Amino acid sequence: MQLTGNEPAMPQITTDVDFADASKEKQYGLTYSTGGLTIRQHFAISILQGSMAGVKVTVTPEIATALSKEAVMVADALIVELNQGE
Q: I need a surface site. Which of 13, 35, 38, 85 has the fewest CB within 10 A?
């Protein structure tokens, strides 16, 4: 399966269950996945968290922007690399 990065990182699968009136037998409805963070967002957050773990400087808006862009760039590279293993 090729990743785009837009897939849910941790999908929650939900099944609607209703009961028939007379028989009380389970009647299953739709099963669907709900949103949340994408794989790309999850990777970027993890990368940014690791980058910030050893930082001992005051983070300015400029530094925050640079670190955020770097995290997204590395997340995108990771997705490309993971797809090459397919």
A: 85
